[in-house]
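In response to reviewer comment 3 from the previous cycle, which asked for concrete evidence that the modeling workflow produces usable outputs, we include below a single protein chain processed end to end. The sequence was submitted unchanged, and the resulting structure tokens are shown without manual editing.
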Amino acid sequence: MYTALGRGVTTDRQLNRIGKKLFGRRWLGVYPVDVKPKTIMRKMNPGANYGIINVDGSGLPGSHWLSVCYDTKKDKWLIYDSFARKSTKLIPTFIKTIGYKYHDINTGADQPDHESSCGARSMAMLIHIAKHGSKSAANV
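The workflow returned the following structure tokens.
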């Protein structure tokens, strides 16, 4: 992952480029938190859909990435935050728009405060889900 994303702060362009390459038409994109969730949901395809959301709005530089995966079979979103915070606190508008059909998949923080690896970690979680299924992500 370091080869593709580098070792520093991850940009939306880097994440989008890698996401398109890895997930093809199942890639939803990279979005700031204030993009309307319906914009994201218009891109959905059958099966699983993968994307990344920043907790900052459009006019801000961005501070933290979350990965989102929608499983059409289960009609549920999986949301990963490397600090294991609640999605309802981080992306409340998105959660409300999706009808609270989601599951926060990590129960313990796996990123130290001093690291800036949330983009790479978010992408790695999406790769894990794509390879091993959504059920395995709940146990990570």
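The chain is about 35% helix and 20% strand. We consider this sufficient to address the reviewer's concern, and the full set will be provided in the supplementary archive.
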